[in-house]
């Protein structure tokens, strides 16, 4: 009888793991409804798996169910101490809800973890949270720290350029973006940032070329729609 129970337990674990993997595959495809169905089924069998709770948090965040995302990410962190990926994602959930101080506190915890291999993520996210608070000095500092960790991180370059433009530093924005684009010419958002920078500086012919580059790189994107409006 004991052997039978153990065998059943192993079988249940295998089913739960397979169900979780299927949910993650749906997540990767962007099919969040199917992913949620599989992950909730897996949760019934393995409710104390922090990685599953993390997956649920990500799915709910993608579906903009931020209260539920917060619940599951907090569970993941309770189950696995120093779960930096979950901590960073919880900060993003706070940021999506414009809970700037809570987001910043979460990113500070994550970026301060010396074992975290990708500190540029929380540092850049912290910069965006400070931008949300209109704290431009700390935003600039955070983005620069992120870029010291990973000099080609597009999200931080975009954030720093946005900070420069917001604070009237268009020359710094231009220099930053031209250097970044020379290294990563396929980064659509940077071409859009450069176009805005050139417009502010009155360099309309060059701005037009940058907007046209946005359309060429990502013709079906929201940025391309913005480019077409600006070109009109």
Detailed description of the structure:
This protein is an all-alpha fold. Helices cover 80% and strands 0% of the residues. The chain has 13 helices and no strands. The longest helix is centred in the first third of the chain and has 28 residues, at 2-29. The mean pLDDT is 92.
- Proportion of residues in β-strands: under 5%
Total DSSP helices: 13
Shape, per Cα inertia axes: globular
Low-confidence stretches: none
* Rg over CA atoms: 22 Å
The pLDDT mean sits at: 92
Give the H and E element order: HHHHHHHHHHHHH
Fraction of residues in H or I helices: over 70%
Terminal-residue CA separation: 77 Å
Present the secondary structure layout.
Elements: H1 2-29, H2 32-45, H3 50-62, H4 66-79, H5 84-96, H6 100-111, H7 120-132, H8 136-149, H9 154-166, H10 170-183, H11 188-200, H12 204-217, H13 222-231
Helix pairs in contact: 1-2, 2-3, 3-4, 3-5, 4-5, 5-6, 5-7, 6-7, 7-8, 7-9, 8-9, 9-10, 9-11, 10-11, 11-12, 12-13
Essential attributes:
single chain, 232 residues, mainly alpha, 13 helices, 80% helix, 0% strand, globular
Nutshell version of this structure?
The chain is mainly α. It has helices spanning 2-29, 32-45, 50-62, 66-79, 84-96, 100-111, 120-132, 136-149, 154-166, 170-183, 188-200, 204-217, 222-231. The model has no long low-confidence stretch (mean pLDDT 92).
